Amino acid sequence: MSQGRKRSWTYRTYPLDSSPAAFGPFQDFFDLWLSKRGSGRRYAEWQDFQLEDFHGWYGQLSLGEIHDDPFDLSYRLWGTLLVEWWGIEMTGKLLSSYPWAGNIWEANERPYMEHLVANSQMGFVSGPLSSIDRDVVYIEGVELPLGKGETISHILSAYRRADPDNPFLPELDPVFLR
Question: With the C-alpha atoms ordered 48, 23, 114, 42, is the resulting torsion angle positive or negative?
């Protein structure tokens, strides 16, 4: 990243029927989700997946369980590379419980996640880990809903480290942008 230039996180949502090809480096992850969802269901379920399905994404995945009243996310899975990049272990923790998450959660991530869940959409996030003094780590990720019947119960995410001077953006206009 160029000296003196700060980037912030962006949060985007897209319709579930978006083209996987529009998500470039995440196309195979999106294709996997679609294959598990099948033609008759709105969402894939966590039990539809096997460890082998995620070859190429090991260490880069998170699985967040949705909680209501108050709305929050607890991580059932936080990959080993995510621990390295973020410098924290989130498995078993509520996102809102971390000291650095408070302002970010309330101002950005909570409205984004609430929109994604309420409107049955998928998400794409990107930005530097500057809130935890890791500006040199720039992350991009796709976030796909998992469900039980017609209700979203979890968010399955895949992330990658990316070049902040050459970020990837999906080739679609987002429904939600923050």
Answer: negative
Strand order in the sheet with 10-15: 72-78, 61-67, 151-161, 134-148, 121-129, 10-15, 176-177
Query: Are 14 and 174 a contacting pair, CB within 8 Å?
Result: yes
What is d(CA 22, CA 27) in angstroms, rounded to the nearest whole number? 7
Instruction: Render pLDDT for 28-75 as a digit per residue (tens, 0 to 9).
Output: 999 999 999 988 889 999 999 999 999 999 999 999 999 998 999 999
- pTM confidence score: 0.91
Q: Counting Cβ atoms within 10 Å, is residue 82 exposed (0-12), middle (13-18) or buried (19+)?
A: buried
Question: 77: Cβ–Cβ under 8 A, 6 or more apart, which residues?
Answer: 61, 62, 63, 91
**3-state SS assignment for residue 97:** helix
The rounded distance, in Å, linking the Cα atoms of 18 and 33 is 12
Q: Is the pLDDT of residue 95 over 90?
A: no
